[in-house]
Amino acid sequence: MAKSETSSKTNSKVNKSQSNKEGEPEEGGGGVAVETAEASKRDFSQNEVVAETRNLSKTYHDFWGRQKVQALKSLDIEIRKGEIFGLLGPNGSGKTTTIKLLLGLLFPTRGQALLFGKDATEVKQKERIGYLPEESYLYKFLNAEETLDFYGRLFDMPRDLRKKRVEELITMVGLNWAKKRQLKEYSKGMTRRIGLAQALLNDPELIILDEPTTGLDPIGTREMKDLILRLRDEGKTVLLCSHLLADVQDVCDRIAVLYGGDLKEMGRVDDLLKVQNITQFSTTALPEEARTEIEEVLKKHGADLLTMTNPTSTLEELFLKIVKESQERPGRRGAVHK
Amino acid sequence: MIVENQLAIPFLQWLPDALLAFVAVISVLLVLGSMVGFLSVAFRQGPTEAVYAVANVLFKAVPDVMATSPRRTFALAKIAFYEAMRNKVLVAVLIFLLVMLFGSWFLDSKNDSPVVLYISVVFGATTYLIFLLSLFLSVFSLPNDIKNKTIYTIVTKPVRPLEIILGRVLGFGAIGSLFLVLVMFVSYAFVQRGLTHEHQINVDSIEEITAQNPIIQNGEVIAQIGDTIGYRGKTTEDAHHSHKFEIYLEEGKGSAQTDFKSDHYHTVSLTVPDDGIVTADSFTISPPQGMFRSRVPVYASRIDFLGRNGERSVDNTGKSVGIFVGKEWMYHSYIEGGSEMAAVWTFKDLSPESFEETLPLELNLSVFRLSKGDMSRGIAGEIYFRKPSSSLQVKSEESVRVPFIVKEFEIQSLAVPRELGGLDIQGNPTENKIDVLKDLVNDKGEVELWLQCTDTRQYLGAARASIYVRTPDSSYFLNFVKAYIGLWIQMVLVVAFGVFFSTFLNGPISMLTTLLSIIIGSFKEHIFLIATSGREDNQLSVGPIEAALRVLTQTDSKGLDLIAADTTNPLLVYGLSALQWIDYFVVLALRAFSNLFPDFSQLNFSNSLTAGYNINFYNQLLPQLLTAFGFVLVTSLVSYFFLKTKEIAK
Ligand SMILES: Nc1ncnc2c1ncn2[C@@H]1O[C@H](COP(=O)(O)OP(=O)(O)O)[C@@H](O)[C@H]1O
Ligand SMILES: [Mg+2]
Hints:
The structure holds two protein chains of two kinds.
Chain A: H1 9-19, E1 49-61, E2 67-80, E3 84-88, H2 95-103, E4 110-115, E5 118-119, E6 129-132, H3 144-154, H4 159-172, H5 188-200, E7 206-210, H6 218-233, E8 237-242, H7 245-251, E9 254-259, E10 262-268, H8 269-273, H9 288-300, H10 314-328
Parallel strand pairs in A: 3-8, 3-9, 6-7, 7-8
Antiparallel strand pairs in A: 1-2, 1-4, 4-5, 9-10
Helix pairs in contact in A: 3-4, 4-5
Chain B: H1 11-45, H2 47-66, H3 70-85, H4 88-104, H5 114-147, H6 150-155, H7 161-195, E1 201-210, E2 215-217, E3 220-223, E4 228-235, E5 244-248, E6 253-257, E7 267-271, E8 283-285, E9 296-299, E10 302-306, E11 333-336, E12 342-348, E13 358-363, E14 366-369, E15 379-386, E16 398-399, E17 402-406, E18 412-417, E19 419-420, E20 422-423, E21 434-435, H8 436-439, E22 446-453, E23 458-462, E24 467-471, H9 476-502, H10 507-522, H11 524-531, H12 544-553, H13 560-566, H14 570-594, H15 606-611, H16 617-644
Antiparallel strand pairs in B: 1-4, 2-3, 4-5, 6-7, 7-8, 9-24, 10-12, 11-23, 12-22, 13-18, 13-24, 14-23, 15-17, 15-22, 16-20, 19-21
The structure holds adenosine-5'-diphosphate and magnesium ion (MG).
């Protein structure tokens, strides 16, 4: 556990967002939520597996059964209890396909998709998951309350519980003012929120979010991310997919990078981003003398100062690198971090 | 008018056969479905995987179906209902309905049978409307939900496929029911209001009726020749007809029924004013009567025919028949006049308490004349009652004969007194009169009614439904409701089939296949008759190969059997017998196939309404309700498997 000493940029951001709601009692998430900076590097590798794909492959066929697209090729991932797992990849890389397979909306061509150790198509599992689709596929003629009440019934919730949950969730997603309006009058952001509310109705253990921030404004995005972190702190497991790197970088504990249906990289975000032989410094109000001093110190140790500018989004670099490499050498990428 | 399906098989007799057919259908579908499932998986992933996959689906189906939750099902039904209510189709249909109804408000009733006209217009229109409505609602719903992906948010909840299907069937069924209840009240009002009318007295037509002979009552002369004893006249022409009437007075008052025209009559009453001058104001005319009847017939449980020498006459299938006169088809079987031939109806459980002094019979006999005779008089027949003995030939107590003249082409009423002169076993008159419903009933509760024709060289045709006992009428409105239940069943079936097809086909194709199923279901009797080369007895003997052969060889009689008998070539003999087996299975398969479709023709009860017969709940409606329930069950279960094995997000 040597790693836990180094505080990565990603995780310090996580902590910052957590500190926003200081004073909130810590939920009994099995000791997962950690407050101190030292322990902020979370380790889920010993937790139970919540969702899993084994050699999962999906080929889309056309009407005549001819092979059309190989959307997913032998994907092996394990998502463990309490973590936020991000599926990353450009459009068309197979993220939604993976999620649909895990939801039983599609059947694997080969391999297995498992939820809680059982086949993903089993109905009973659905009581323990929440799903926010890419677009909110809801009935436009219902209002927010009716929508949530309807999905509550689908969870076979008794009336009183349903009423309570509907109220709670509408408040949580901040739609109290619009709860009597039909969904067709909703803006994209509002629709997303009500979509999220329906995904959380049953207080799920695993939440699957397909492109949760796409189409949201910066404030909406921030709120969504905070919410995801809050869910994690409540001990829930989150699987999200996105092509927006910033989201993944900010919130995910681990990511898998897909490209053209292949798994290119998988591992802890900080591990993937740490480039061993480059160190960056960032400071505030660094006096000129200090700067020369540091340069001298560096010189003394035989290192050259490269830049002292703002750091770039390294995930984006990683991402572009993967894409570039994949185009040059198609197929699976060598090392997959665990 | 003959209403043949009045003679539906009694419910308790129908039930075991129907249950057997139901179990057979379920098993065949299960086997067939497993086979198709196995093959489709085996094709891609090999037989071992396939066995596993099929077993997996089948075994999981049981807990899955058991877990069906009413709350989820009703939630889905409610959504289906709302969705349909918002559907433009519904609005369009409703507008169409209104236009149609108001358009036909002015239906020209210059028709001999306005009731038939009105009822058939109303039922025809409603049938088309309800078919269109339920078809459009049911076939597009699931495909649209898949297309809009609203189904994603549903199937990722713990929703069972059966709930999705039942929810839709219930939701759309509710819409259809609501629609039908609405239309039912509107049409009932429409028929009632459209056919009611008022007549006035046509003053110019009123004539006095004068006595031709002195009229004597209780030894007292109450009218001399030439005295006015009544009035005759006509009503005004309203609703394209007028009536004639004759009223005989008794102490200055009288009332009578007009002639029967346009399916009804009126009662005209007359009160002669004190000054003795009869004017139009002295008459009152009732609203139309007898238009909306709901007769409740009690049919005989069996009919037997006696041959020329008094023996029980049977055809080669053992069914008792009379003579075939080559007229019509085989509905009526004929007895010859002036011979021992008789038709014998056996009535069961006619409770004496239900009838007063008379036993009201209605007859609907057919006449076949071998000689012209007296055309105007009609054919003479007689009926009598007999206590059933061990056989039709063994003598028994009976009543005296009641002669009557047969009226053709109409339903003839015959009120027979319950108390008739009796004859004992030796044929001697009994001392006292006998009560037909008590003294001639055997310990099984049966009594026989014998019909014979007394005009030589003339024939009377009869069937089991040709004579029945008419018990008090039931409510016409209730009968109207029952006929609408028939429509309701059709609506439910269309919805069930529409939803079923939409689980594996897209919207337009589901619509076509559902439509096709309705057509096959409506004409399946005919289709099946063609398939068995027109044999009306539905015997499984002539298949398509044999039929084709008969056409080719231009011999009507030379079937495969006879050809095989002609030859000694063993190859030909075996070949032909193989063909016969193929034929047999083809016909069997066709019959099985035809059973996959509900018989829509059985669900049209408008004939009963126009003919004025009560629709029997137990024998006519209940079997159809249960059959429909069976169809909904089967289509829902098959839909379950289709949906369960469907890749929703494909
Ligand atoms: N229903 C489908 N039929 C055929 N091809 C599909 C279907 N859905 C997705 N694909 C293809 O599969 C690949 C992966 O798609 P998807 O999983 O939606 O990507 P992502 O979510 O990463 O953007 C793409 O090439 C896409 O075109
Ligand atoms: Mg996607």
